[in-house]
Amino acid sequence: MISRGSLWLPLLVLLLLAALSFWIERSVQTIASGNATGETDPEGIMENFDALRTDQTGRPQYRLSAKKLKHYTGSKRTELESPHFVLMDPSTSEVSAVSQQATVSSDGNEVDLRGDVNVLRAASTGQSALTMQTERLIIFPERKLLRSPGPVNIQDATLNLRAGAMEYNAVQRLIKLTGRVQARYISGNN
């Protein structure tokens, strides 16, 4: 004959295992959601960061440098302090951009510059140097495309432009302005 006490022992062990597995699951969820430390602390920090992208023949395509780089594993986000981006192409003018901060997409195909963004397209044969100022500039390095989703001021030797947004194709050297556009011609005979 089986006593009543021997039936409670397996039930007590099962309840203890259920409580333990519940506690372990909660602990793992807290760490995975980033509440413990994950997202606030970068996985890696690099000072005086400088990267150069070349094509298959070894010719430089673009350079990205920064005072400080922080990479976060959980979101795969990369943040840059005082970034400097230079688009290099022998067939077109060199284009450089600086800002206060930037983020780089996880695949590296998009650089989002923010805060007092200044762009300089170097002078070339038949074209004067061109400067652009905006608060935000999104660069697509592989496509050689620069996009400002907000107000932008553009100036060269003969023009002063303001627009609501701008897109610059560095290969075609084509600037597309949208929104309210104001242009002022600067005479060279002053």
Automatic annotation (TrEMBL):
Pfam families, alphabetized: LptC
Keywords per UniProt: Cell inner membrane, Cell membrane, Membrane, Transmembrane, Transmembrane helix
Entry keyword annotation includes Transmembrane helix: yes
Gene: lptC
GO CC, alphabetical: outer membrane-bounded periplasmic space; plasma membrane
Gene Ontology terms, MF aspect: glycolipid transfer activity; lipopolysaccharide transmembrane transporter activity
Protein name: LPS export ABC transporter periplasmic protein LptC
